[in-house]
Write a structure and sequence with these properties.
DNA-binding; homotetramer; 2 domains; Arc Repressor Mutant, subunit A; Tetracycline Repressor, domain 2; 12 helices; mainly alpha; 237 residues
DNA sequence: TATGAATGAGACTTCATTCAT
DNA sequence: GATGAATGAAGTCTCATTCAT
C-alpha cells in the first residue's frame, strides 16, 4: 500500500499500459492497477463461463473484491470492460507472436517451418487463453463499431506479420503484405478457435489442416522449391 | 441426401420444416406460419441493427404485429428465436449452395471455376442476408452448447460439399472430405463476412484472396494440371 | 380495441381525463384507474411530507400497493407523476372555483363580496389540499419547461375568471381580462400559500390583506361607488 | 438598522459576513473566501441551468476548481449551499433596495413614484440575478423548515421597508407596517419572477400591473391626493 | 386458443460523503 | 489543513415471462 517503489523492471511496465485502453481513469497507483487486473480476470472468467449477457457488473465487482463504486471509477460501463478485454487480448497475442517472429532463427526459417511455428504458437495461445475468441465475438456483436475500435489493435499484429512478409519477399507491395497478413491472421484464428472444443483427434487434424491451408496460400506469395506439402508437414495420422 | 435431383413434390414441406426447429408448437395453420415468419423477419432486422441484447421480445412481437402472448406460444424464450434464426439461415445457405452444386455443369467444372462459383454464391448470399454471420456469432456466445445444436444444421451443408468432393476425387476418404468441407465452409464464411463492411476496393481484394486461399488449399486434395493460380482466377483490378 | 361504444356520458369523462395527462397508457379498466389514483394519492402525501427528492418511486409503488413494474406502465418516470399531480390540482382548483363563479348570485355580487368569496374559496381549497402549492413549486424547479406545460392547465382557470371579468365590465379587452385574471390568480395563490404555516392570528390577517390587495387592484378595472374599503371588508382585529 | 447613512469604514466586513451563513468554518484566509465565492457562483449557475437535483457536489467542486474535500470543509452538506445561496440573495436584495430606500430623495417621493422605483429596482435585481427565485423555490421545497430559516434573513428586508412605511405614515402600528411590508415584498417578488420568462411585451405589461397592484394596495395605508393611477404610472404601450 | 396487462427480480449506475494519506 | 480516491446504499427503470380473462 505504502510501497514507494514498484516499477524497477520494464517488463510489467508494458503490461500495465495494455490495460489502459477504454478506461475512465488511468490508475496511477499500484493498488488501483491490481484492482483493474482483478476485475479483468474475473470478468474474463465470468464472460466465458456465463456469457456476457448473464454476467452482472455487481457480480464482477463482488468476485474481484472491488466495491461497485470503484468499478465504475475505472470502467464507464459494462461494455468498456469487454472492450478492454479484447484490446488486452489482442495486445497479448501480438506480444506473444512478436516474441516468436522477432527471433532471427524463425524469420529465416523455410516457409513450412515458419507457418508451423506461427500456428503452433497461436494454438498454444488459444489453449492458454480459452476466453479469447469467445470474448472477441461477444464484443463483435455487443459493441457498436467494434470493428473500427479493434482494427487499431489488430493493426499492430498484422503489421508485425506484414513486416516479416516484406523481408521474406521484397517484391511484394505493402498492400499485398497487409492483406495477406490479415487473411492469415483471421483464418488461423477462426479455424483454431473452432477446433478448441472438438475431440483431440479431430482437433489435431484441424490444426494440421490449418497449417496446410495457410502454407498453400502463402506459397502463392513466397514461391520456393519445396513442392511437396505432405513431406514438409508430415502426413495425416 | 446426395441425390442430385431436388424433388418438387415435397417442396413446401421442407420450407415448413425449416422454421420448426426450436419451436414450442408446430404451427399448422397458415396464419400461425405467417406470424412465425414475421417474427423471424423482424427479429432478424432488430438483432442486426440493435443487437440481440438490446432487442426486447415485446418489441419484436409488436413490430411483427403478433401479441406477446402468441409469441410465447411459438418460441419458448428469447434465445429460441436466435436459434431458429441460425438454423433457418444455415438451411437457407445450404439450399442456396445445393442448387448451385447440384447443377451438373458446375460439378464438372475445373477446380478453379468451381471454387469461384462457390465463393461468389456464398458472397452473394451474405450480401443478400447481411444479418447472417452477426446472428451466428451472437448465438455462439448466447446459447449454451450452440455448437452442438448448430453442428447438426451445419452437417447437411458440409455433407453436400463433402459429396461433391468425393465425386471429384474418389480416392479421398469420407473423413477427408468432411474435414476439407468443414474447413472450406468455415474459412469462406469467416473471410467473406469480414469483408462485408470494408470499402469496395478492399472488399473485392478480400474476395479474391478468399478464392486464392480456398483454391490453393483444395489443390492439395484435387491435383490437376492447372499450375498458375493468377491465370485461372484473373489478376487484381 | 374492439369496444365500439364507450363515451355516452360526458360527466365521468372529464374526471377520467384529468389523470390522463402525462400518462404512458390510458387506463381503461377500473382497476387500473384505481391504481393510478392510489399512486397519485400516495405520491402527493410523500412529496408533501418527505419532499420530492427524497421520495422514491419504489416507496410510492409500495405504499400504493402497486408493483413497481405496473407503476412504470402508467408513468414514464418519476417526474411524470409530479406533472400529473400539478395538472390534477390545477383542474381541481378550476372545478372548485368554477362551481362557485358559475353560480348566478355570485357573479352578480358587488366586487367586494365577489373578491371575498373568491379568496375564501381558494383559501379553503388550499386548506383542504395542503400539498397543492408545495407540489407546484417542486414541479416548477424540477420539470423543464414546466411553465409551458402548466400554462395550458392554468389557462382554463384564468379563462373562467377572465370571462367573469368581461361580463362585469364589457369595456375591457380580452387581453386586459386575461392579464388581470393571471395577476389575481397568482397573487392570491402565493399569498394564501405563504399564510398557511403561520400562526392563526397572523394567518387571518394575511387573508384579510390578500382581500384588500385583490380588491384594491380590481377596482382599477371595475370602478364602483363603493369608496371605503374598510367598510366593505371589515376592519382589522 | 434604520440609520440612513451607510458607513464606509466596515465595507469589506459586511461582504464577508454575507457568505458566512450556514458555513461550517468561517474562512479567514483570502483563498478560502475566494473558494467559497467560486463555489457559490458555480452552484448558482448549475442550480439554475440544471436544477438542484441534477447538480452534484462533485460537479460544483470541480467547476469551482475546489477539491471536493475542501468543499465539505466549507459546507456541511449539499443543502447548506442552497441555504447559503438564498441567504446571500436575500441579503443582496436587501442591500440593493436599502441603497435605494435610504436615499433621502426617494423616501420623500410621492407614493406612486416610490412604488415605481421600488419595483423597477426589484425588477432589475431579478434580471441581473436570474437564479434568484428559482433557487428560492428549490430551497423552499428541499430544506425542511426553510421558511423559518429564511424568515430571519427576510426580516431585515421587511424591516427596512417597514421603517420607511412608518416614516411615511406615523399612525400605522408596527404590526401594520410589517404585514404590509411582507405582502408587498412577496407579491412583487412573485409577480416579477413570473414575468421573467414571458415575451417582452407581456413582461412589460406584467411589470406595469405589478406597480398598479402595489400602489392600489398601499394607498389603503397611505392616503394621498393622487387619485388617478393611470396618470401617475403612465399608460400601456 | 388468444391476448396483453401485470409482474418483480434485479440490472446498471450515481453521488453525497468520508478519511487515509 | 488539504486532498481526491474510495465507498456502497439506494435510485430509477427494464423486460422476459406468466396467467387470468
Amino acid at each position: 500500500m505504502s510501497d514507494s517503489a514498484s516499477n524497477s523492471n520494464s517488463a510489467s511496465n508494458s503490461s500495465s499500459e495494455l490495460n489502459t485502453a477504454g478506461l475512465r481513469r488511468k490508475p496511477r497507483q499500484a493498488r488501483s492497477q491490481e484492482r483493474v487486473d482483478r476485475i479483468l480476470a474475473v470478468a474474463e472468467a465470468l464472460f466465458t463461463t456465463e456469457g456476457y449477457g448473464k454476467t452482472t457488473t455487481n457480480a464482477i465487482a463482488a468476485q474481484a473484491q472491488v466495491p461497485i463504486g470503484s468499478f465504475y471509477q475505472f470502467f464507464p460501463d459494462k461494455a468498456a470492460i469487454l472492450q478492454a478485454l479484447t484490446i488486452r487480448y489482442t495486445n497479448q497475442l501480438q506480444q506473444y507472436l512478436k516474441r516468436l517472429l522477432d527471433t532471427a532463427d524463425v524469420a529465416a526459417l523455410p516457409l513450412p517451418e515458419y507457418v508451423e511455428q506461427l500456428i503452433d504458437a497461436t494454438d498454444q495461445f488459444f489453449t492458454e487463453n480459452p476466453g479469447y475468441y469467445a470474448i472477441f465475438m461477444e464484443a463483435q456483436s455487443t459493441i457498436p463499431d467494434f470493428n473500427e475500435i479493434d482494427r487499431a489493435a489488430d493493426m499492430a499484429l498484422i503489421e508485425d506479420l506484414s513486416t516479416a512478409f516484406a523481408q521474406r519477399n521484397p517484391t511484394l507491395t505493402q498492400e499485398d503484405c497487409e492483406v495477406v497478413g490479415f487473411v492469415v491472421i483471421k483464418v488461423i484464428g477462426n479455424l483454431l478457435w473452432l477446433s478448441i472444443d472438438q475431440d483431440p483427434i479431430r482437433r489435431q487434424r484441424l490444426v494440421l489442416e490449418t497449417k496446410k491451408l495457410a502454407l498453400s496460400y502463402l506459397q502463392n506469395y513466397f514461391p520456393s522449391n519445396t513442392s511437396n506439402l505432405d513431406e514438409s508437414l508430415g502426413s495425416t495420422t
